[in-house]
Amino acid sequence: MWVHNIDPIALDLGFIQIHWYGLMYLIGFGAAFWLGAYRARRPGSGWTEEQVSDLIFWGAMGVVLGGRMGYVLFYNFDQFLSDPLWLFAVWEGGMSFHGGLLGVLVMLWLFGKKHDKSFMQMGDFVAPLVPIGLGAGRVGNFIGGELWGRAADVPWAVVFPRTVDGVARHPSQLYEAFLEGVVMFAVLWWFSSKPRPRMAVSALFLIMYGVFRSSVEFFREPDAHIGYIAFGWLTKGQLLSLPMIIVGALLLLWAYKQSSSAVTVK
Q1: What is the spatial distance between Cα 48 and Cα 58, in angstroms, rounded to a whole number?
Q2: Radius of gyration (Cα) for the chain, nearest Å?
Q3: Which of 181, 177, 171 shows the shortest CA–CA distance to 147?
Q4: What is the pTM of this model?
Q5: What is the C-alpha separation between 84 and 64, in angstroms, rounded?
Q6: Are 33 and 53 in contact (CB under 8 A)?
Q7: Closest CA to 198 of 119, 145, 100, 132
Q8: How far apart are CA 199 and CA 3, in angstroms?
């Protein structure tokens, strides 16, 4: 058992404080640009480094705006109804992956209209660039001592002071960092490094994130003001991840069916 005592502030300059969580966002966006630029330089990629730079900027806007709106509307709707302006209180923290994903999808659509690229073409290009940012974000959650896991008696259990109760818990943030960051990146980067049917990479991203998030939710403490929403075990995170798994599976089947049909016609 270990007592969490990491300072969430990476650098205190007096007039400004730089938090580890913010640095994790910079790492995520920086990694996405570097990886995207690397892919863009490959012959026949159909992308330029300038387009990748624009894409990351648009995507970052989608993550921040969508993530905040998703956190407020999905997880704190009652507070939003009582104080609508709280939506803009970004300095208080609070981000939702599912909201961020919707924000990115909107920005991808707008980016595609501007650069004449299909939605799925962009999705397949972006999907392998995302996991490092997801993993970094979860590490930021762990450093900040937030979104902790359920009570546990495993040797690596952690006591998070912010829980007040002093109970040792699963470091579920690190479980998510490993699955959503390391594993997803390795699989998607490998999968997308070879020619695949259009939509297949995007579909695999949706399936993997949905499965990994739903699995870790069994070790993660649900939000106190929400709790379990059904059956004594179903969480809001699992409910929001279910459509991702279903849509991803359907897209993957459709992608390979379309590819098979094209080969047959030839």
Answers
A1: 15
A2: 20
A3: 171
A4: 0.87
A5: 18
A6: yes
A7: 119
A8: 44
| Three-state SS letters, the chain | CEECCCCCEEEECCCCEEEHHHHHHHHHHHHHHHHHHHHHCCCCCCCCHHHHHHHHHHHHHHHHHHHHHHHHHHHCHHHHHHCHHHHHCHHHCCCCHHHHHHHHHHHHHHHHHHHCCCHHHHHHHHHHHCHHHHHHHHHHHHHCCCCCECECCCCCCEECHHHCCCCEECCHHHHHHHHHHHHHHHHHHHHHCCCCCCCHHHHHHHHHHHHHHHHHCCCECCCCCCCCCECCCECHHHHHHHHHHHHHHHHHHHHHHHHHHHHHHC
Both tokens of 22, joined, read 């913010």
Q: Would you give per-residue pLDDT tens digits along the chain (266 residues)?
A: 899 999 988 988 888 888 888 899 899 999 999 999 999 999 888 899 999 999 999 988 888 888 888 888 878 778 878 888 777 765 556 677 778 888 888 988 888 888 888 989 999 999 999 999 999 999 999 999 989 999 999 999 999 998 989 999 999 999 999 999 999 999 999 999 999 999 999 999 999 999 999 999 999 999 877 889 989 889 999 999 999 999 999 999 999 998 775 544 33
Spatial contact of 164 and 4, defined as CB atoms under 8 Å apart: no
Q: What are the residues whose beta carbons fall under 8 Å from the beta carbon of 100, sequence distance 6 or more?
A: 62, 63, 64, 66, 67, 70
Are the beta carbons of 114 and 122 closer than 8 angstroms?
A: no
Rounded-to-integer distance, Cα 10 and Cα 171, Å: 20
Q: Which two tokens stand for residue 24?
A: 């994790």
